[in-house]
## 1
Amino acid sequence: MKKFSFWYLLYPCLLLAFGLPLFNHDRLVGPDPLSLSFATYLAPMIWLVLAAMWSHEQMESKSNGYAFLRILPIEPAQIVKAKFALVFVAVAIYVGGCCVAFALVSTSPGYLIPSCGYVIVYSNICLLAAALLYLGIFRFGFSQFGKYVLIVWVIMLVTPVPIRIFILKPRGISDEEIMQFMRGPYWVIGTIICLIGYYLLMKLAIKKLNERYA
Amino acid sequence: MEHILETNKLRKEYPEFVLDNIDWNVPQGYVMGLIGPNGAGKTTTIKLILNLIASDGGQVKVFGLNNIQNEKQIKNKIGYVGEEQYFYDHKSAAWTGEFVSHFYDKWDAERYQSLLDQFEIPSKKRIRKFSKGMKVKLSLAIALSHNPELIMLDEPTSGLDPIIRREVIDFLKTFTEENDKTVILSSHITDDISRIADYITYMINGRIVMTESKDVLLSNWKKVHFTPESLEKSVIDNLENVESHMFGSSGLTRDYPAIQDALAPGLASGDVKVESVGLDDILIALVKGD
């Protein structure tokens, strides 16, 4: 964990710092100092945790890191747990940082709760995506799996734009209306399901890494 | 004699290769040389012992412990240098030492630094800029810095130039003599093994064909040069790899003391000559006879 923690924490902190000027913008234009644009800007940036994870796996593959770790007195389960824990901690710090920042500037729960929920939903997707990426890497190997991930990665980055233009905008669904959905208990239930899923995927990843080593 | 390593019917199957029922004991406190041609199964055996690959049958006990159930505990007491050296090559030797120190119970940072100094390895330089020889030495420094009880070296000198090779082997010789460690050294370079091993194991086509003390092996195996009429047929029939040439014939015996009396008249008359053999001569004979 210690090996990569600096980079995992640096990216989210930088993004949070870049987003800070938006507070001022929101203060000028919105009914609450915390309007929705801040959350919608920050939430997708959690993907950078995935980018950090992917680049480190690339480096791990390039330098045969798993072969190096294999000769050390460390069990495959420990390797997987450390990697999953690091992603989880990075995501948790990012979510925590966002929520604290929101709480500091918001004057009404009407904006605070949906904003936090919005970031948490993205974080849940990020956690599951990270778990699936690890699973694929342990199952197929980085090089083999990497070919397909690139396609998925591009789709993930590109699809929100056409969804917004061709589906949401013609139906008059605004960002604010989407955010209102976060007011309900759905994202709490979703978070619990995601965390359980993340844990189960970690167990499966341990099994796959053991099989790969064998 | 206590055995630090015991394998029982160890087996691994690949589509084109089978490691077949390996029963192998390594005595504690000695250097065991594992000799065999390329593809004999030396690396597979070592990887199975370290549980780097899964076996298809059999058992391995290291320090009296099952190698699968006690993998972490066993690896804590083993220093391993493979044929290929894997590191985070964008990092330095100092970083690598710091990184691996977290995994070993008895990591000795001072010893690591002293080995880096002795091997003239720059601790701050990125490993990707190291030569093959430097990487082997770094690997050796890591393998020896956590006070291992068993050192396993799988073709460590393969691909090294003769000067570095000699340097590494000489270091190992001194180290093992001074520290009373058990060493398993696998190589197809018999000269390396000949220099430091106490015991020799020959492995051919996935089978262990012989394990013997080096001294006994070299005193038993001899090359006999003779003229056809100087030896009885029964003696000649017991020689291996008999070859005829313009000065007579020659063949190998694997039990020189047993034929010593029969050779005596020929030796006295000068019709028979006996020559010591090297480990590679024995390897060639075993491969031909396999």
## 2
Amino acid sequence: MFRDLSHFRITERVRGCLLLAAVSLRRTLASRQTLVCGLLLAFTTLAVVAWSLRHDRDSQEFADDIVFPLYASFLLPMFSLCYAAPSVAGEHEEQTLVYLLATPLPRWMVFAAKYGAALIAAMLWTFGAWAVSSWLAGPAGRNVLVAFLPVVFWSTLVYVGLFCWFSAALPRATIVGLVYVFFVEAFLGNVPGIAKRAAVSFYTQSLMLDAGAELGVRPTGVRDPVLFLPLAGNTAQTIVCTLAVTTFLLGVWWFSRREYV
Amino acid sequence: MSSLAETSDASLIEFAGVSKWFGPVIAVNHVTFQLTRGITGLVGPNGAGKSTLIRLLTGQVRPSIGRVGIGGRSAWSAAAKSRLGYCPDVDAFYEEMSGRAFVRILARLHGLARRSAFQRTEEVLEEVGMADRADRPLSSYSKGMRQRIKLAQALIHDPELIVLDEPLNGVDPVGRMELAALFHRLVARDKAILISSHVLEEMDDLADRILFLCQGRLLASGSPAEVREMLDDHPLKIRVWSPRPRLLAARLLATDSVRGAEIEPGGGLLLNVEHPHNFFRLLEGIVVDEGFEVEAFQVIDASTQAVFNYLMKRGRIV
């Protein structure tokens, strides 16, 4: 009685998934999130320019004044939040998710497409902001520009996975994400003691300290090894990789099971 | 109910003892039916469980108890969705896109290759009467045009089963007739169509079978004629919007179907209709033959609820 519909092969699914990612990327880059990211970048640019007016700055000061407190603890998660939190939740709130869930694309592929779009958009901003701020910082910034690029990549991967999971699992994912960024990443990630290990920014800073060791960036001041207890590079890298995979899989699992009504 | 029961090997949809709870609220209560080709109307007042039943059918939610199958597969599965075209009741789109681009993207997501997607998009836009109007951004469309684009995306992959949630909402009387003709053409091509509505009269000339849902239960089912027999003497309140409400009121009051008319401050014309079936035929004639302009009409919900209460009182519960 029925037509054979096995024609919807894996290649067509992958093609559909890639198309959805491309459409989502185009839409997300044209959204007001891009305006928010632009304002954040403008603010950062002003802060870095003001900071660099003194000419005797070195990479240690750049890391202590700009990279750790502003970039790693605030900008990285904020850029990721801007694009990842609305990935699924935005479609749900705008009631357009129903069209995607009515297609024969498996749910995990729909999530992967939304994740992919958010990741590319977030990467554009995190890498862009890193390049701009380290370039504007002068020799102190350019010295660590390339060394910290892998850290930027891995941290963005974790944050996008985390906020896409929030987006799939929680109502008002953007607000929850904002609270998370300010309380966990910006505040908890920088306080002395063991609690900061709950923040991704702690692992980001540990990786940066490891990558910058040979470039004159050391754990001093509030990041004194006794107080800050940074992890060894390999340990931090393992945790960050695990988090990136785990958060993505949690998002897939949640999105595949949740009823969006 | 018996009219809907077919042999399971011929049924497209199978609801088997399906119940669905949202917390303590039961939205669908032990519903069992099978559907085959033709147009089936799903009718019930707001809150009857129609939307939940459609969400179960389109795999948006899973049953708490029971099984929902499309062609032998779980409705939740991706494979079942290849057979299904869904026109949701929500008025939401990617607003910045044109209608043509929106339909084309959904064609690609349904697995059509680029060239086929382009070709099929033009076919369905032609079919829903939007081929020459589909290049404007969706945000600039009227409600009726938006309904047609939703319909186009539901037809894009030529599914066997088409589920339409309130597809005639906001469509003018002429548009309703055009869409009804389209639904009949689809049935002639061996499609099964499920149309939900809270307006019983919409289904009179449209549906081959009707399912009544009330308070989550399948209250009654049968052909429109059987249902008409139950409801013909039940009055309804209907609100009509027209640029000439006084003239229209005078014309309608001259008939036997309308007992009273009241012009409301917002420009609406509130009618007390004695024989709804006759009234809708009459209104259609007035619009088409006498040139009266009717922008929209709405059956007042409380009255629809009253129809169901009336039906329940008459003891036609299955």
## 3
Amino acid sequence: MHGLFRWSRKWWPGLIPLAMLWALAAWNSTVSMERDLSASASAAVKSDVLDKTRIAVAGRDVTFAADAFSEEGRRSAVTSVESVSGVRLVNDRTQLVAEAKPYVWSAERDVVRVTLGGSTPLPAIKARLLEAAKAALNGVEVVDRMGFARGAPARFDAAVLLLIEQVARLKEGKITLSDRAVSLSGMARDLGGREAIVAALRNLPEGFSVAANDVAAPPYVFQANKDPVGVTLTLTGYVPDNAAHAALVAAAQRKFFSEKVVDNLKASIGAPKGFSDAVLRALGALSRLSTGSLVVSDREVKLSGDALYDGAANQIRTTLPKELPEGWTAKAEVSVKPAAAPVDASVCQRLFTETLSKGTIRFETGSATINVDSAGLLDRLAETALRCPTASIEINGHTDGDGDDAANQALSEKRAQSVVDFLVKAGLPADRFKATGYGSSQPVADNDSEEGKARNRRIDFLVR
Amino acid sequence: MAYLVTFHWGWLLGSLLLGLGMGWIAVVQHGDGISKATAQRLAVLVVILVGVAVARLVPGRFGYWLDLGLVMFAAYLVGCTIGSGLRDRFISRQAPSA
């Protein structure tokens, strides 16, 4: 042992090469060891849920900065780095993700892209939202501007997933979720898109509510075009459903007695309230025009064309706006067709017969009130009457064989008088007309069938 | 420590061999070597340095270099001890009797 002390006093010369070796080792190994530690530390926190992880190694000391989503997660991540073999000290620069109040998430859609912004609670949820957005938007560019924040309401992800589906229904606009209140604005992609969004939002998780829904839908358009050359009525645009579709086409066929109805209508939800009623009234007005078009856009009715005579034009202008349901507006740009050349009595008779062979003047059942569907036909008859101003005209009412004769007689007289009243109101002198009722005494067909009865219920025009 | 040894085993082995050589030579070297007072001062210095290293007072790369230096120095001392011991046992003691 004594020898060891003696010898050890002579060991110092070796310190010089040792120092050189030390310097060489330090120069050679520092960077590679730091890299090794950095890799090990990164691997150690890989399974921890963190954001903005930064690991810097100086010597064997690790500076570890990261945003954690919970205090436990933060502590566990720091422990993971501390337990990496070789690490001497950990400079803990970790912090908790900031808490957001109110907790806001948003999706904004413009022509080319959808931008997701605001806060999400966890990377996994953020990834899921992005994936869902890409799937729902099918090829539209999705820009991710979402950050992280704590304090998301319960079932945040379910609510946002539902909202992402609604973004797909928008052409442009913005959906914002603030805490548990949803606000929507913009324009729906399709007709009925607004309604579809409203329906979908009913499935929001409990506690979530719609604070404002200012999504507008494209206008609900219905168009009708009366073409006197092709003798057609073309219907285009939308109707609420198949039942309304059938009813509308049937009504059009009654009102446009001589035209062929071309039906290009499509069923779609999103019709404004009172749609069918308004369209029927507007079609009635169109049926009185010789040529014209009708555009119904949302709650706005625009009618333009030529009426057959002055009185009709005035009537249409004044009555159409009044007839429409509440909240609807009408714009009737109706001019008058140039008057046709006067004709003599025999031509007039032929024109009456021709017109009445195409359509029948209809009355309400058992009454003398003229059915609204006959307005177009009566206008045509009035126009013909105007062409032979000197001729006097007998207007004869007939009924079918049902009911007793006295009642039929009275009804036929009243109905003939109703027609005369109409013509007088149209501006024709009353002394040119004579209303006569024949009851069921002059049938033109068998009263045994419904078809025959319908033919017997008629008004004839006889020019004298 | 274990990490230092496994990561730097080559350098430590070098230090050990250097110590072995130095220890081998030291036994038969003439002269007095360093004085007892100097040896004590050196020992105190080493103890202070070890204390600083254990307390992790020096940060970053300097701290690492200090650790590395001390570990290499320890390996060197071990080498010296073994070298001197071997020389003393197998050669120095046999020489006079030969």
